[in-house]
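Bit of a strange request maybe. I'm writing a small parser for structure token strings and I need a real example to test against, not something I typed by hand. Could someone generate the tokens for this chain?
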Amino acid sequence: MMFPLPVTFDENELFIIISTIITWALLFMLPKRMSAVTITIIWSFNVFLALLADITLTVKPYELYFTIDHKTHELFDLVLHFITYPTLPYFVVNSYQHYKPNGLKFLLFVVFWAGAAIAIEWTSVQFHVFTYTGWKLYLSFLVYLIVFAAAIWLSNLVEKKYPSRWNSKTQNMKKGQLTSK
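Reply from user aminoacidic:
Good idea to test on real output. This should exercise your parser:
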């Protein structure tokens, strides 16, 4: 088996299961403000970034942190990278599509979400989802600022070509072109 089951089922697997259930429940309960194309691209983009970070930063010569119980990957790493982690950037972009902050409000928006991500990451460190061997939490804050800004930029680019029904309706309302169906 390429990704084995955990050797011991403990707090980090439980944390991943609970946080996945909570975030996916929110994902289905909150209104979607992006097209399916945008959601797919944002999701894939963030899976790629998470895998790239782990491939780059968790191996020699860096070995700045490791996930779950050890330095090798297991089944819950897949859950974390493909199912749990991408929900946070999804929420960032989804709420951006609703509020569309500009200028200083955009900066504060991204800083707020990076702060929320740091709080979640700090909690996950307490549950040994991540074990830092050289990584510092403030570095994650800087990474989240860049990742969230890039995800928002990417969503705006995709939404121009494949707008969601919600964004199309909002744009038409701003132009005074809302037609009833």
